[in-house]
Known about the structure:
- This protein is of the alpha+beta class.
- It contains 13 helices and 16 strands.
- The chain folds into 3 domains: about 230 residues, no CATH class; about 150 residues, no CATH class; about 150 residues, no CATH class.
- Strands 1, 2, 3, 4, 5, 6 and 7 form a 7-stranded antiparallel sheet that branches. A 6-stranded antiparallel β-barrel has the order 8-9-12-13-14-16.
- Strand 15 and strand 16 form a beta hairpin.
- The radius of gyration is 33 Å and the shape is elongated.
Amino acid sequence: MPAGSPITVWTYISAWLWRQLLLTAGILVTVLAFAAAVKFLAEGRLSPVDTLRFMLYSMPPMLEYALPFSGGLAATLTYHRFAADNEALACQAGGISYRSLLVPGLICGLVLALTLIGLTNRIIPTYLRRMQNMVTRDATRVLINSIRRGEAYSFGDGMLVYADRVEPKGPNEQAGAYQVLYLQGVLLAQLDKETKQVKAEGSARDAFAWFFRDTGPADDPGANPNSGSNSGRRGVTRITLVPRDSLGWVRDQFRVESDPPVITATVPSPIRDDPKFFGWRELRELRVYPERIGQIDIRRRQLATILAERAVIEDMDIALRSDGRLRLIDGLGRAVVLRAGGLEWDAQEKWWRILPPAAPGRADGRIAIDTILDDGRERSYKAARAWLRSLPRPESPGDALTFEIRLSEFSAQGASPEPGIGVQISEAGQFGDRTMKGIKPALDPLPRLMAMSSRALLDIAAAHLDAVPHDEVVRQPAEILREDIDELMREIVSKEQERIAMSVACLVMVLTGGVMAMRLRDSLPLVVYLWSFFPALAAVLTIVGGQQMVHEHGMVGLPLLWGGVGGLAIFTGLEYWKLRKH
Length: 582
């Protein structure tokens, strides 16, 4: 046979192969896209027009699974027709080997594998973000549709909200809410995190739900990774639920409240909480900046706040024990001087006990606090006992670390404080107790710690635990943060290996279809495809199962992830050996 004949045969096979591939992939992708969109259409999350747009967005992600099976089916149909018409036999008689006949399939498989690498690297994560935005961006639509379908809405940390009726009231520009909903006949249920059992429940005559949106560069995984410390509250929807006239049950106790506490929750953007929305470049950056994941950033801020509190407490204790006095400031930046002998943790009160002055003659042996008013006048407080604790931990970077001081059996002298400003004094009991809120340290380390990365904070926490091994307040959040980072690293590895394995499987599946088609040329095309489909399906299932195993247990899942691809390659090699033998 002339030397140019194989090129003619390759062109002939390639034309049929790519024609079958494009047709099969188009049909399969359309079906998969519709299957992905119909669920949200039925739930009311998408309108008919949005459903069509959602289908267009879902087509590129569906190619990750459609291309391998479409390539295998196209190769089966093309090579089976080529072999059934005795064209393969004629080529054999002309000196063209089966290996040469599989070259078009090999080229097609390589192109599909490289295409899949490019898709999973950038294009598929982009369209996954668009899909997710369409179904989760507007939290008000999700809540309204859930209530109108008679379903409970998952609100906050284990809180379920049900209502008989919901009515949109529109935005409230003065409060900054982009939407306000009015709910009637409200039922609330609080689930336990571990057992998922109802630990508290209640009802309210009605309630208002306020929706606030914080958006920013954190919505885009391609944003600057160095901005992790500033992205804590971006890309989330904040919801505030205000029930009225509630009746509830908590731990075998009933309670009736005309003014119940306000319930708050955040709906973080899932785009920044799942590595599947990240391309390979973003995944590499995520290894260095894990705090770009919302949950890890929350853990990082919590640890930073605890470390800042510990540092401030330690500095306070050193200053009081060495000098007997400590300078603090109030909310308006005015001086507050504490004269005492040190600090000691009170396990029963869960506060830091302020010790009296070490020298009996200093401050009459009582704890003293001097405040300076705006006009320069002084006011002093002396107490027999006093405690100190930090106020609720700030959730966003930049919030100052504040404390409150509780005085017991105190006396005051000097000018009266101005109401409503500076140090707030509130009565706490009938035995001369007072609470001073809004106290801040003169030097606040929180902004510096908030700007640090997760791993830098873990190093500081480790050094602190070396000095204070039994400080569970620091140990627990540090261990949780470290576990979250380790889990994220395993998930990154699993996603990268899954994408590579799926691309390699795409190449092998095309070759499997071609080999089995020529090997079983006397069988029906459907029977031939089943011989290649089930091994290919097993390979895909092991890839998905291996990815989950790597995510949960680490590298021990890699043999499973790659075992299916290797098994499919061995199966194809054995069938090719039988084809050549006969």
